[in-house]
UniProtKB/TrEMBL annotation:
InterPro entries named in the record: Phytyl_CoA_dOase-like (IPR008775)
PANTHER family in the cross-refs: ECTOINE DIOXYGENASE, PHYTANOYL-COA DIOXYGENASE DOMAIN CONTAINING 1
Source taxonomy: Bacteria, Bacillati, Actinomycetota, Actinomycetes, Kitasatosporales
Signal sequence annotation: none
Name of the protein this chain belongs to: Phytanoyl-CoA dioxygenase
Pfam families: PhyH
Length: 282
């Protein structure tokens, strides 16, 4: 990974204006296959563990959470995916992971057209400076997706609206389906209004959602505790940064004072450089 390069400037322009951009062939066919197989294995295990009816009652069937801790096959999506360049372009070095989930839409499931939402509902309708974006979502697809099997519907340009509860009847005719191929990704401003379609086929369709936000927005989970330490230590500095490893609040006065004097949320690599500089000075 990546299987194809990204025209970063073009993608940034598309996201700024329409709110989203399709990234063809971000994942290689082999990686797409491996991740898809792992997702369905984990989904079957989830059904066995919690029970299908219980998961349906909670509206959680097919929602696989905290993928960073689930299997190493997912780690490339936090380390080497070319789509991450889009995240960093918008959020800079302080962007963190809000959620890392798979969403499998089973036959007969769907929310279109009554469940329009944004991925940052807490700030929906809030005005931001034109050059600021509070969150970036990347969806990775592992099946050929069309309207009939539950394509995600987005409302182009709606990331710029200040409306906090738009009428679904108004949104529906403005929506377009995200029709993609296996291995494609879609990146969008997390404020864009969208909803899942209905899967009218006899086969499930799978995607992975990686939502990144500015560091002031609270993540869905405390990944520093939700991901085992032995997994965290194997991840690259980039992935560890997304998982907020270096932005955990200090627990002692000494640590607080050190951070205040060296810059808050300083990461381990910066700390090593600072220590090396001190040694050189001596």
């Amino acid at each position: 990974m990546p299987a194809s390069a990204i025209d970063l400037d073009h993608v940034i322009d598309k996201v700024r204006t329409t709110g989203y951009a399709v990234l063809p062939g971000v994942l290689s066919p082999e990686e797409t296959r491996r991740i898809r197989e792992t997702l369905h294995r984990l989904s079957e295990l989830d059904d066995e563990t919690y029970g299908v009816e219980r998961l349906i009652g909670m509206r959680q069937r097919g929602a696989l959470r905290n993928l960073a801790a689930a299997d190493d096959v997912f780690h490339g999506l936090l380390e080497t995916s070319s789509a991450l360049d889009v995240v960093d372009a918008f959020l800079g070095p302080q962007g963190i992971l809000n959620c890392f989930d798979a969403l499998i839409l089973f036959p007969g499931q769907g929310r279109y057209p009554w469940d329009y939402h944004t991925d940052l509902m807490d700030v929906t309708g809030v005005s931001f400076p034109p050059n600021r974006i509070p969150g970036v979502n990347i969806l990775y697809f592992f099946d050929r997706v069309r309207e009939e099997n539950g394509a995600t519907w987005v409302v182009p340009g709606s990331h710029l609206t200040l409306a906090d509860e738009p009428d679904p009847e108004v949104m529906a005719p403005l929506s377009v389906p995200l029709e993609v191929e296996p291995g494609d990704a879609v990146v969008f401003d997390a404020r864009i209004w969208h909803c899942a379609g209905t899967n009218g086929t006899d086969m499930p369709r799978a995607l992975i959602k990686t939502l990144f936000t500015a560091p002031w927005y609270r993540p869905q989970m405390d990944f520093t505790r939700a991901v085992p330490e032995d997994v965290l230590t194997r991840l690259s500095p980039r992935a560890r940064r997304y998982l907020n490893v270096h932005n955990v609040p200090p627990t002692t006065v000494d640590e607080l004072r050190w951070r205040l004097s060296h810059g808050d949320a300083v990461n381990a690599e910066e700390a090593k450089v600072d220590k090396a500089d001190k040694v050189a000075e001596v």
